[in-house]
Amino acid sequence: MSGRPVIGITMGDAAGIGPEVIARALAQDAVHDICCPLVIGDAGRLRQAMEIVGSTLELHVVDAPAQARFERGTLECIDLGLIPADLPWGKVSPIAGDAAYQYIAKTVELIESGELNAICTAPLNKEALHAGGHLFPGHTELLAHLTGTEEVSMMLVTPKMKVIHVTTHIGIIDAIARIEPGLVTRTIERAHETLARAGQHDPRIAVCGINPHAGENGLFGYGEEEEKIVPAIKALRERGWNVEGPLPADTLFFRAGRGDFDCVVAMYHDQGHGPVKVMGLEAGVNVTVGLPVVRTSVDHGTAFDIAGKGIADERSLIEALRQAVELASRRKPKAA
């Protein structure tokens, strides 16, 4: 295995494009050059996906990472056997929603026992997850629950910029209410730690405002920037950190895209997601920051409208695997 990290890939919602993008991505030699990919999911569904995309991979079912061969041309899978053969593509299913949860839970067990170096997740469907009895807003909150982590942040990584979010899967009114200096400070701290770990020891971090033009000195809003964001920035600048803001989001993302900053701090979900997704879904990777384990994910959904048609794009998953390798712990897993 030559020291390649073992990456656990959760299959996501079996009715979506997860199985197809996995089949396509793991056919790439470049993936096997950098890691040992192991799918935690359903072997039967993967076989169907491989047939749909015309894959020539050999599916090798194992009970544990230590049994995997990790050879080119082989798709390694821990089969939980939760998906019926006749599950339709592209439809919300409580069976698929529960299975998506079980894949994550099993993968967390494996990484906590030292058998994996990192987790890379294919997309799940929130409606299906809830229908399956698991009331979490998404992967980020689910993984925080399973690892006993009180607070995490979502970071979107693209070739041109990194964006971390102060709030994510809540409504805009609730997001504004939740934002406060302590949360802003902790979010920036998580960004700083992640960037420093990646070799950027004095990262340039820019912080978005909440209102148009970052409030325009009180012209817009009710002083949210001064109350909720400015105290955090002042405290971190006193540490000597390179933190700038609050800045108007419309021009900030343009500046970040041309390289002025190493990371942007977005206040709410769409403020950060919109600019990233304009760049193309294939370019983005979702990283959960603050977990005791490394987790990356594709930055797209289950795409029920094209599921089962063999046309899903695997590039985001390949990039997510590359990011998982870069972030993975250096400790050698037991499976190696």
Provide an overview of this structure.
The chain has 336 residues and is an alpha/beta fold. The protein is built from twelve helices and twelve strands. Helix 1 crosses helix 3. The C terminus is likely disordered.
Describe the structure using short key phrases.
18% strand, alpha/beta, single chain, 336 residues
Stretches where pLDDT is under 50 for at least 5 consecutive residues are 330-336
Which sequence of strands runs across the widest sheet? Answer: 3-4-2-1-5-12-11-6-7-10-8-9
Largest sheet: 12 strands, mixed
Helix percent reads 25-40%
Would you count the extended β strands for me? 12
**Individual helix count:** 12
Note the overall shape. elongated
What is the averaged pLDDT score? Answer: 92
Gyration radius (Cα, Å) is: 20 Å
Determine the structural class based on helices, strands and strand pairing.
alpha/beta
Summarize the structure.
The chain has helices at 18-25, 29-34, 43-53, 94-112, 126-131, 139-147, 172-178, 181-197, 224-238, 249-257, 269-278, 315-327; strands spanning 6-10, 36-41, 58-62, 74-79, 118-121, 153-157, 162-165, 204-208, 242-247, 263-266, 285-289, 295-298. With 336 residues, the protein is an alpha/beta fold.
Spell out the blueprint of helices and strands.
Layout: E1 6-10, H1 18-25, H2 29-34, E2 36-41, H3 43-53, E3 58-62, E4 74-79, H4 94-112, E5 118-121, H5 126-131, H6 139-147, E6 153-157, E7 162-165, H7 172-178, H8 181-197, E8 204-208, H9 224-238, E9 242-247, H10 249-257, E10 263-266, H11 269-278, E11 285-289, E12 295-298, H12 315-327
Parallel strand pairs: 1-2, 1-5, 2-4, 3-4, 5-12, 7-10, 8-9, 8-10
Antiparallel strand pairs: 6-7, 6-11, 11-12
